[in-house]
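Q: A reviewer asked whether we had any structural model of the full assembly, not just the individual parts. We don't, so I'm hoping you can provide one. Inputs are below.
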Amino acid sequence: MQRTSFRDMHCSLARTLDVAGEWWSPLILRDLFVGIARFDELQEDLGISAKVLSERLRALTRAGIAERKPYQSRPRRDSYVLTAKGRALVPPLLALMAWGDRWASPDRRPPMLLRHERCGRLMTAQVTCSRCGGDIVADEVTPLAGPGGARAAGTRVIAKMLAPAQPVREAGSRGPARHRATRR
Amino acid sequence: MQRTSFRDMHCSLARTLDVAGEWWSPLILRDLFVGIARFDELQEDLGISAKVLSERLRALTRAGIAERKPYQSRPRRDSYVLTAKGRALVPPLLALMAWGDRWASPDRRPPMLLRHERCGRLMTAQVTCSRCGGDIVADEVTPLAGPGGARAAGTRVIAKMLAPAQPVREAGSRGPARHRATRR
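A: Here is a predicted structure for the entire assembly that you could use as a starting point for your response.
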């Protein structure tokens, strides 16, 4: 693959795409989430060459997102499962899927439904605020400069235009907690 | 770009990636969200060739995700803004960013912070259940066959392994509502 690496960018979206955003990778993660584990089944599901699938699985494994589990020794056959790091990617992918159901579905019929076992109901993935629990709408979110930002490739203009996060709105008891807000 | 199109797959994640998942596209959407609108500023921010940026902006415009707004006529200069469809992609991208803050940040210092204007606080994007509001965890979500599923390229194995959504758990008053759950 001849592509610019996003790894060194000071942007957590770029870093996420760097390890999980190559063409096919999100669909491989989808398959692992659904429970397709064997190399040959992944290949059959996606209709992808063994070479590309191997490359992607190697990258996902190297990034600690998937784990290889041999399930047969002679001849050796591999299966793959998501790690905790990989399982943590599933909710954002389900949020992207919900967008596709709403905005990129030619017939408005969702190909996949999701049951939330905690409440037992069919649901969609929504993106909400970690502080107030309300739905996040783009117009109501203000991006601010974070402590890890830098003026470098991939964020050259962003770095100079974002306002620093002022403690003003969270003065008093919440002051020092604001930077922790982005770390779960 | 020589790549398989995901457009015809019976999968809303694949369809989302098809219109917004090419290399660079999510970062262009990030920039438009942040307020970088001019072609030359996008190019400076990302360190990307004019050719690649034009291609991506054309694809995003064609998909109805971004809109071109000329801001100068002689010589003509273009700027771009997100449409409603594009703004709806921002929350899922913020959820991917939150994953990067947590799992792909070498120094654990978030490059960007987000203030939710509705509650006034610094927050992260969380993915929650549209029905009970609880956090979504991969292990607590069961994928089921949806009405738009098909056994075709990209979902050959998935289509035969997913159980159909049974009305059992939502019998009675909620029965017919279950398919609507995925349409907002």
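A: Points you may want to mention in the reply: Residues 168-184 of chain A have pLDDT under 50 and may be disordered. Residues 43 and 49 of chain A are 7 Å apart (CA to CA).
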